[in-house]
Write a structure and sequence with these properties.
elongated; alpha+beta; 2 domains; binds zinc ion; single chain; 317 residues; Yope Regulator, Chain: A
Length: 317
């Protein structure tokens, strides 16, 4: 097939199998004869994923799918079929094929046309059922489409697809991984200490005032994102604690900066208590920039936690 023929053949496959277009991933998904398909045409390359929920094809991965006899007999090399790795080993019921322009050139239109049916027949030989009995969301309706929830395939009915999609669109669906406090607390403490060292340290050396103003902001974003990634999740309490730790770190850094400044000015040593008193009684209210530092830190903490929360949002296609 030429590139143009392959494009036409791809479009034919999409409509013949009743696949629907997914906006975000720019792929086509659906269920055809009891097998889930997820296909895409990118830069003249056709990607094809097929998932048959009840099938077990692990043994075939090591044998280059030589047991997929329908595909083999049609003249399509089964070495083009590959297993798909998941988080815990290979998916037992999923295969993928990447049909590059070179491979498509070797295929006839008939071979490509027959490919879905041949794959389905071969999946059946390894336990696939002719239909998928239940929607993976409500568990009752017959699924008639394929949903992608955070890159996981879920056969679903149309009602569930519409409902879950709406919930995800307004941000109701969150990946509700619980906060691992045994990691979150050390991350907060270590992060706040580093923040203080960095921020206080910046004030020990001559740094342009403008750069100094954005320091607390960017440090707070990094701090916030780091805490969430160590905690493995986020919650309101964790976000509040992060904001509080940010303010504490900015204040501590400022007190350190004040101490150095006063020591330089008066050429004598100043105790930490004295520096703290000077900072709160004099500098904090007299110097506008001190307020900006705190606002910058809080804004960074807020933005960082928003980013972290956004990252836990479930995506549905
Ligand atoms: Zn359903």
């Amino acid at each position: 097939m030429t590139a143009a023929e392959a494009k036409a053949a791809f479009e034919d496959l999409v409509s013949r199998c009743g696949l629907r277009y997914t906006e975000r991933t720019r792929r086509y998904v659906g269920i055809y004869e009891g097998v889930c398909f997820d296909v895409a045409l990118f830069q003249q390359c056709i990607q094809l994923n097929a998932i048959a929920p009840a099938a077990v094809i692990n043994s075939q991965i090591l044998e280059d799918f030589s047991g997929f006899t329908h595909v083999k007999n049609s003249g399509v090399p089964t070495t083009w079929i590959r297993g798909v790795r998941g988080e815990t080993g290979n998916h037992p019921n999923q295969v993928e094929m990447e049909l590059t322009p070179q491979r498509l050139e070797r295929l006839t239109e008939k071979q490509f046309f027959d490919l879905p049916t041949n794959l389905i027949q071969d999946f059946r030989a390894f336990g696939a059922e002719p239909t998928i009995p239940h929607c993976g969301v409500c568990g009752t309706a017959v699924p008639n489409t394929l949903m992608m929830i955070d890159n996981h395939y879920v056969p679903a009915c149309e009602n569930c697809l519409a409902r879950v999609r709406d919930e995800a669109a307004v941000g109701e669906l969150q990946d509700t991984a619980p906060v691992q406090w045994t990691y979150a607390v050390p991350a907060l403490l270590v992060g706040a200490s580093l923040y203080t060292l960095l921020w206080g340290g910046m004030q020990q050396i001559a740094i342009p005032a403008k750069l100094l103003l954005v320091g607390p902001f960017f440090a707070a974003i990094m701090f916030s994102v780091a805490v969430v990634s160590f905690a493995g999740g986020t919650s309101f309490l964790l976000r509040m604690l992060t904001a509080a730790a940010t303010v504490a770190a900015v204040l501590a850094g400022n007190i350190w900066g004040t101490r150095t400044l006063v020591e330089k000015q008066f050429q004598e040593l100043v105790s930490w208590e004295e520096a703290t008193r000077i900072y709160f009684e004099l500098r904090l209210f007299q110097h506008q920039q001190e307020g900006y530092f705190l606002i910058g830190g809080l804004a960074g903490a807020w933005l960082g936690s928003r980013m972290a929360k956004e990252a836990t949002r479930v995506r549905v296609d």
